[in-house]
Amino acid sequence: MLRTVVAGVGSKVGGSVDDLADLRLLVDEAATLLLGPRGHPTTLAMSIEPSDAGLRIALTLEAPGVAPPAADGLSWHVLIGLADEVEALSSADGPSIRILRRQGEG
Amino acid sequence: MSALEHETIALFERLPREPALREELVRRHRGLAEALARRFRGRGEIEDLTQVAMLALVKAVDRFDAERGVPFPAFASTTIVGELKRHLRDTVWAVRVPRSLQEVGLEVGRAVEALTQRLGRSPTAPEVAEEIGRTEDEVLEGLEVGSALQAVSLDAPIGDDDGPSREPASEDESLALAEEWVDVADAIRALPERERRILHLRFFRNMSQSAIAAELEISQMHVSRLLARTLDQLRGEVDR
């Protein structure tokens, strides 16, 4: 679902097939990182904001008080490899990953 | 034992003689079924889930045997969760990629190849749409299907792109990967040559999927598929 939405928005802002493929992987990875091995169902919110700098994507797990994911490990490598900026932080709603992906790169 | 539990047990004892009590028992535990259904929301429509949970509750009422010493709510929860899980599993099966969509996936894949060659860059979805006379949404759907991990059968018809890569990844490349991604180094070393090479080209040479596809003489969709599958596999290794 998240993959489809992000690809849809990516296409609307003129992303190439390569961009869309990367965006899908990015969102997959960020969601995996946030959800972790959590056993019970939780809500994951995603916002996508096209800007001059590129697409700003924020994924937030609705789990207040849960620490943001550690900035290491495989998923983190993948995020850094595919995005231009990645940040893991704690928001009022719960742990969050913010991603900036510039248009038409790699 | 609470007063409520005593009442429930008393109702069950009368049930064989008074079948109308079945409704009363279902009504009393409706909240339990609804709460369990809500725990699975996000994986299905809440209305469907609630309906499945309610039917499971009725089944639990019919099958409950008070003499086994298990309180009814515990027995009912097990039955309801079991039915919800089965429902979700079956629904997932039902949405497996239909034939017609697989065809769109293949068509889109071929168009992406052709356009990448012609334009010398990765095409946009509208460009692909124009090429094959479909809508942008259909193209996006086709791309999604094309890179879906489960759609293994898509690998076969493309045919020409499943051979080994032209040259094996050099020692240097593997080493660079292993050093940077130190925590998954063992898992990376265990990958097939081609998958390791794709990881290297994408993450350390920052090459686009199309460029990697050209280098390895396979389709972009195939790169997309292999990359997703490889990352998934590595994740599994790391979590172990």
Uncertain segments of chain A are none
Categorize the overall geometry of chain A.
globular
Write the H/E string of chain A, N to C: HHEEHEE
State the CATH topology of chain A. Answer: Heat Shock Protein 90
What is the assigned CATH homologous superfamily of chain A?
Histidine kinase-like ATPase, C-terminal domain
**What is the tally of beta strands of chain B?**
0
Question: What is the typical, i.e. mean, pLDDT of chain B?
Answer: 77
* Percent of residues in beta strands of chain B: under 5%
Largest sheet of chain A: 4 strands, antiparallel
Given as residue ranges, the uncertain stretches of chain B (5+ residues, pLDDT < 50) are 149-171
Name the pair of protein chains with the most residues at their interface, and give those residue counts. Answer: A-B, 32 and 40 residues
Total of helices of chain A: 3
DSSP strand (E) fraction of chain A? 25-35%
Classification by helices and strands of chain B: mainly alpha
Oligomer: heterodimer
How would you describe what is shown here?
The complex is a heterodimer of chains A (106) and B (240). With 106 residues, chain A is α+β, with helices and mostly antiparallel strands. In chain A, helix 1 runs antiparallel to helix 2. Chain A is 38% helix and 27% strand. Chain A contains three helices and four strands. A four-stranded antiparallel β-sheet of chain A has the order 1-2-4-3, with helices on one face. With 240 residues, chain B is an all-alpha fold. In chain B, 70% of the residues lie in helices and 0% in strands. In chain B, helix 3 (30-39) packs across helix 4 and helix 10 crosses helix 12 (193-203). At the A-B interface, helix 1, helix 2 and helix 3 of A face helix 7, helix 8 and helix 14 of B.
What would the keywords be for this entry?
heterodimer, A: 106 residues, 4 strands, 27% strand, B: 240 residues, mainly alpha, 0% strand
